[in-house]
Amino acid sequence: EWMDIYEPKPFVWTSLVPPVEWLPAYIRALKGTPPTENDKRLQGDLQYSISGDAVAGLTVGFMLVPQCLAFALLAGLPLEVGLYSSFVPLVMYSLFGTIRQVQAGPTALMSLLT
To answer: pTM of the entire structure?
Structure first.
């Protein structure tokens, strides 16, 4: 039931740095090791795939870097700020984020809202 998701849960230190939890499961999946119950919970319905992740990363890079450079130019900021705004949020989210299907950083939707 959906209410189970919102029930209070005890604090787990891996919630501060999620890769501590999902990186070992990702490595086991790439090696072909049978997944544990926790691995299945972390993975959900979306299979781990190094090629899929590489394609997703390249796609985000090809779209996000020019977009961030254009936003920096529109704002009258140096291009370096645009590059920082494209890479720093992605690196930070890879360390502290908890959802695999999120694009962090400046996007067109954020531009329309501000």
So the answer is: 0.62
